[in-house]
Specification:
9 helices, four-stranded antiparallel sheet, 14 strands
Length: about 290
């Protein structure tokens, strides 16, 4: 079980996270939602060990993260960060094999190679095994990175999988395929936490939704508990209708269209630079939500 208690994180005088409490049980898929800058990626960096909490504690299977060695954590926790920069000309298979580094000393064994082949097949990148990762699209690179982190903890019971916007560059087919993989792994006993921007995808695949705003946890519960028009407006500042799919019983939202009024006169003369802020030529763009 993953347990986070009273997590705070500050850089100098800026507090990025404050008073975060939550847990993930084996077999559970938790999706984290929030507007840009809400603190989602900071939270996942704390859980991955990239950042150290200013206050609070993180426990994995009853022990503080600091009580594990790096090698031990590598065998039970894997992270797919939003930004994965690879500048060297590695092949797809070589990148996926990097996930097995914690498990062998000099050369990969047959089991390592078998796991690499399995995770590449599951994520749909086997046919690209010999291609350079530098030649891939953003969505293809995300699938390769997913195969890599799956290879890292493939046979580990109760493993923790952390995904930071794992489907941001994928087309709709692979968005669903990736989240269905995460769902299947949770069903096998893994703990899965994913930062997502698509609320409907989160509702469809995750057991619980944790919604954040300004570095704080605002709501944590099932989609039917968390997804209300009021909560969505509070977190995202957008009006949306909430409904239940009668066939799947999944909660889904329909955001209302936003109308942007660009009908304003723009001053072209030099003296417009010195115009008063109240000058009608310099009035801001008006954004309205259709009712």
């Amino acid at each position: 079980m993953l347990f986070a208690e009273n997590l705070n994180y500050s850089i100098k005088k800026n507090t990025l996270l404050r008073g975060i409490n939550f847990s993930i049980r084996p077999g559970e898929f938790l999706a984290v939602l929030g507007a840009n800058g809400a603190g989602k990626s900071t939270l996942i960096k704390l859980l991955s060990g990239e950042y150290v909490p200013s206050e609070g504690c993180i426990k994995l299977h009853g022990k503080s993260l600091s009580d594990y060695s790096d090698l031990q954590l590598a065998g039970m926790r894997a992270t797919m960060m939003q930004q994965q920069h690879i500048s060297a000309d590695f092949t797809v298979e070589e990148v996926v094999l990097m996930g097995r580094y914690p498990h062998y000393s000099n050369r990969p064994g047959e089991e390592d190679l078998e796991i690499v082949a399995q995770t590449m097949e599951i994520t749909g990148v086997s046919h690209m095994a010999d291609r350079s990762v530098l030649s891939l699209s953003g969505g293809e690179r995300q699938r390769v990175q997913l195969a890599r982190i799956l290879a890292q903890i493939w046979h580990q019971p109760n493993a923790l999988l952390l995904l930071d916007e794992p489907v941001s560059a994928m087309d709709i087919r692979f968005q669903h395929q990736t989240l269905s993989i995460a769902r299947a792994l949770a069903d096998k006993g893994w703990m899965v936490m994913a930062i997502l921007h698509d609320i409907n995808l989160a509702s469809q695949y995750a057991d619980r939704l944790l919604m954040m705003k300004n570095g704080r946890k605002l709501m944590d519960g099932t989609a039917s508990e968390v997804l209300t028009s009021r909560n969505i407006y509070t977190v995202f500042a957008i009006d949306a209708e909430v409904a239940i799919n009668p066939r799947t019983l999944h909660t889904y939202i329909v955001p209302k269209a936003i109308k942007v009024d660009l009908n304003r006169r723009i001053a072209h003369s030099a003296d417009s630079v010195a115009a008063s802020p109240t000058d009608e030529r310099l009035q801001p763009i008006v954004i309205r939500t259709n009712s």
